[in-house]
Amino acid sequence: MNIAILGFGTVGTGVYKIINQANRQTQNLHVKHILIRKNKKPDLPEMTDDIDAILNDKDVDVVVEVLGGIEPAHQYIIAALKHKKHVITANKAVIAQYMAEFTKVSKENGVKFYFESSVGGGIPWIQGLERALRIDDVNKIQGIFNGTSNFILDQMHRTGEPFNDVLMQAQQLGYAEADPSADIDGIDVANKLCISVDIAYDLFIKPDGELPIFGIRNITEDDMAHFDQLGMTVKLMGISHQVGNAFDYVVEPTLYYGDALEAHTTDNYNLISLHGKTIGVLKFMGQGAGQLPTANAVIQDILDIFQNKEHLKREFKSTFKYRSDLTKNNYIVRTEIDCSQLFKRFEPVVRGDYLVVHNVPVGEMHRLMKRVLQKDETAFMASLPEKREGAAK
Ligand code: HSE
C-alpha cells in the first residue's frame, strides 16, 4: 500500500519512522511521497513540494494529512478524496470545521476518510465510541482531551512551578500545538469534543458560536494550592450531555475529588469516557499527545483501510438542539472584583479569596464570567464536583 504524507512535522515524522521500522503489519506499507513546504530543502528522496504530482500519482492509495491548520489542509483533503485516494488525518481543527463535507465527498468518491489520531492521540477512542454506538445511544461524553494542558496542570500540581515554566516544558516535549494558545485556551479540546459529539449523536456541530469555552491560562500556583487543600485536583475537561431532544457541550476547568480516575490522569495522558445505556461507563486512557502514540493511531487507520475494515457511517440526521441550561453546576471563582451582585441569583458564598456559586446553568456561568473577565482579565473559575457528606466546599 503506497502512502503520501502531507507535512513532515512531529506526527508526519513519527508516521515515517514507524512505517520504516517495518515491524509486524507495517511491513505492507510504503511511504512514496512526503509533501514539504515550497521553500524547504528536501533531505529525503521521498520529499517533494508538488501536491499535484502526489494527487496525480495513480500508485498512491492513501494520503495522510498532518499539516495542521485549516488551509491548505482542507483544500488538499478534498482534492485527495476527489482523486479517489483514501484520506487519514490527525488534524482536529480541520475535521471539526469540515467533518460534514469530508464525509460527503469521501462517500461520493467511494473512498475512506478516517481520523482516529485526531482525538486522544494514540487512544482508540473513536473506534471505542463507534463500537459502543453499534448497540447503545451514547448520552454523555467527558474527557481530558488535551495532553498539553494536562501536563501543565499535573506538573503545577506536583512541583508548584508557575504556569509559563511548565508550558515551555510541554512545548519542548512536542505535546503543544505550534500556537499553544489552542491548548491552554481550550480550543483544541473544543475541536476534539465536537468531533466526538458529531459521531456520538450523528449531528454535525462546529466549535464556534454557542460552545462555552474557558481555558487554563489564568490558573496560578495559589489556585493549585487552594484546590489541594480542598482535596481536589483540577482538570481541563470537555463535556457533553444529551437528554431527550437536547444536548449541551462545554469546555471548562473542572475539579475532581482525589479518588476520581480523572484526578489520577497524569503527564500528557488523556482520559475520555462515554456513557451508553447497556455498556454503562467506559473510560479510555492513554497518551493523548506526542509523536509516536499519535503516529501509531494514524497507522492503525491505514491498516484498517488495507484490511477493508469499515468504520461507522455518519449521516448527520439527528435533530437534537443545543440547550445552554441543560446542565447546572456549582463553581468556584477567583477574581479581584466584588461580583457577589453579578452572581446574586446563585447563592454566592465567599470562601477566603474565592467565591462559590451554586446551581448555575453552564451557559449562564460562561456569560457571567465573560463580564468578570472584562474587568479582571486574571480571573479564574472551575466547576465543582457534586458535594459529598463532610467534604469542604
Ligand atoms: N496539542 C495536542 C495536545 C496534541 O496537547 O493534546 C494532540 O492532539
Based on the model shown, name its key terms:
Asp/hSer_DH_NAD-bd; six-stranded mixed β-sheet; NADP binding; alpha/beta; binds L-homoserine; Dihydrodipicolinate Reductase, domain 2; 16 strands; 12 helices; amino-acid biosynthesis; Rossmann fold; 3 domains; 393 residues
Radius of gyration computed on alpha carbons: 22 Å
List low-pLDDT spans: none
**CATH third-level topology of the largest domain:** Dihydrodipicolinate Reductase, domain 2
Shape: globular
Helical fraction equals 25-40%
Bound molecules: L-homoserine
Structural class: alpha/beta
In DSSP terms (H or I, runs of 4 or more residues), the helix count works out at: 12
Summed up, the domain count is: 3
Largest sheet: 6 strands, parallel
CATH class of the largest domain equals Alpha Beta
Compute the average pLDDT. Answer: 95
Count all strands and give the number.
16
Strand order of the largest sheet: 3-2-1-4-5-6
* Secondary-structure element string: EHEEHEHEHEHEHHHHHEEEEHEEEEHE
Strand-residue proportion: 15-25%
The termini sit apart by 57 Å
In quaternary terms, these chains amount to: single chain
Annotated CATH homologous superfamily of the largest domain: Dihydrodipicolinate Reductase, domain 2
